[in-house]
Amino acid sequence: MKIQEVAAALQAEVLSCHDKLICEVHAACGSDMMSDVLAFVKDQAVLLTGLINSQVIRTAEMMDIHCIVFVRNKVPTDDMIALAADREIVLMTTKKHMFESCGILYQSGLNQRNETAT
Amino acid sequence: MSEDLTFSYVVDGDNFTCAGEASSAVKKQLRWLGFSPDIIRRVSIAMYEGEINMVIHAGGGQATLTVQPDKIVMVLTDHGPGIENVELAMKEGYSTAPERIRNLGFGAGMGLPNMKRYTDEMRIETKVGEGTTITMVVYIPKSV
Fold first, then answer.
1. How crowded is the C-beta side of B78, counted as CA atoms within 13 Å?
2. Chain A residue at shortest CA distance from B120
3. Which helix (H) or strand (E) holds B54?
4. Quick one: pLDDT band at residue A117, thresholds 50, 70, 90?
5. What is the rounded average pLDDT of the residues A43-69?
6. Cα gap A63→B48, rounded to integer Å
7. Global pTM?
8. Nearest chain B Cα distance for residue A1, angstroms
9. Other C-beta atoms lying within 10 Å of the C-beta of residue B100
10. Best residue of B27, B36, B44, B45 to probe chain A, by most A CBs closer than 10 Å
11. Superfamily for B5-139?
């Protein structure tokens, strides 16, 4: 699934790295706890969260996550957008809630399960 | 690579926003040195969790990363309160982090377990009231 298809499925507004929208993603992880996100590794994943602070971007950077979806109409700060742009991470915001967003992406084919890291 | 390379970082304990800068720098260095994405990710995540822990619990500290021919060694040192019960602290889900830290997305009790998960060796030396030193090792496969 391409990142632009994620944005379309969630009717999301893209806030950074529009040139990366054609990149493919294969898995997703939804959480507001960044340490939970850090416990799971999956290549080319999307992170869905309702948390707004710079550590969301840092977590994605460490995990090689190239796309973050902010749910519940949360909008990242300008500093977060600048940091994400520097790290080549696509940010987008959707009015949909976490549960609905995850369900839509799962039904759209983004249904590889997360696997516990070895 | 025949000689050891050492990188040192000061972790600022007063600024949660800046937490992760050392890990980010490490990630760039390892990428520049040509390590595989898997090795880079494991080292970066372990270092990042350690950095966050130092900011949350110890008011900052110092991080040193040494790249040796066969392994990468991370040493994180702080002069915080120390860990009272290491066995308990290693349990997934156990956390002493305050509510304000949980609201920031951390303090889920996954920090130390994640550091162990992503490294090949981890040693914790701690003394209550004096501080903690955590040493982590990631071995480099010969083909890398």
1. 25
2. A118
3. helix B37-57
4. very low
5. 94
6. 10
7. 0.91
8. 22
9. 10
10. B45
11. Histidine kinase-like ATPase, C-terminal domain (3.30.565.10)
User: Do B49 and A63 count as a contact with CB atoms less than 8 A apart?
Assistant: no
What backbone phi and psi angles, to 5 degrees, belong to A52?
Answer: -120, 100
Does B16 contact A55 at a Cβ distance shorter than 8 Å? yes
Residue reference for tokens 């998960």:
B117
For residue A116, the model assigns a pLDDT of 42
Domains of chain A, with CATH numbers? 3-111 (3.40.1390.20)
- Provide the pLDDT confidence category of residue A69 given band limits of 50, 70 and 90: very high
Amino acid letter, B97:
A
Q: Which chain B residues are closer than 8 Å to A53 by Cβ?
A: 16-17, 104-105
Domain residues of chain B, as ranges?
A: 5-139
Beta-carbon separation of B17 and A53 below 8 A: yes
CB contact under 8 Å between A51 and B27, yes or no, is: no
pLDDT value at B9 more than 90: yes
Mean of all residue pLDDT scores within chain B: 93
Distance from CA of B43 to the nearest CA of A (A): 9
